[in-house]
Write a structure and sequence with these properties.
- The chain is an all-alpha fold and 168 residues long.
- Helix 1 packs across helix 5 and helix 4 runs antiparallel to helix 5.
Length: 168
């Protein structure tokens, strides 16, 4: 469940970062491409009016500094958590505390992104909502596939060098 929440959070972050750039790129360039390409294609497919583009841009601009700070805080907390986890003298209590800080920072990012996304969606028509929904499914599927592909590579390496699936 946490993985899916982080995946959703990641897709929201990318969406916000690319939103203002996507409005001027021809759809053919990105259709069917990687995750970023799908996000850009989704934004183009919305066929936003000039008024909607303006309203979305105003929201994104207003929220940019707060979103960037929240994401920076999350990255710092995750880095600290990783440092504690990989310390030669790993202290379980320090790791637990670092994890709690990272979880709290992740929660803050998720809540703020969801709040902003709800406001952004308020600018869209019902038809545009349906277009966005169809692309969101594709984007999340692409993120999950990328994760599973990478995890599969790691699992294959481990199995190869451990002598079988259970280290036999």
């Amino acid at each position: 469940m946490k993985k899916k929440a982080l995946i959703a959070l990641g897709s929201l972050c990318v969406l916000v970062l690319l939103a203002t750039q996507a409005l001027t790129v021809p759809r053919e360039i990105f259709h069917g491409q990687d995750i970023r390409g799908n996000i850009v294609a989704a934004l183009i497919a919305l066929e936003l009016s000039d008024s909607q583009k303006h309203d979305l841009a105003v929201i994104l601009k207003r929220e940019r500094a707060g979103q960037e700070k929240a994401v920076a805080d999350l990255r710092a907390a995750v880095r600290q958590c990783a440092a504690e986890a990989f310390d030669k003298n790993m202290d379980p209590e320090k790791l637990r505390e670092a994890y709690r800080r990272a979880a709290a920072a992740g929660e803050e990012v998720l809540v703020e992104k969801a709040r902003m996304t709800a406001e952004l969606r308020g600018v869209l028509t019902q038809e545009q909502e349906e277009v966005l929904k169809s692309y969101r499914v594709r984007i999340i599927a692409a993120i999950i596939k990328r994760y599973e592909d990478r995890q599969g590579l790691i699992d294959s390496w481990v199995d190869l060098h451990a002598g079988g699936p259970f280290g036999e």
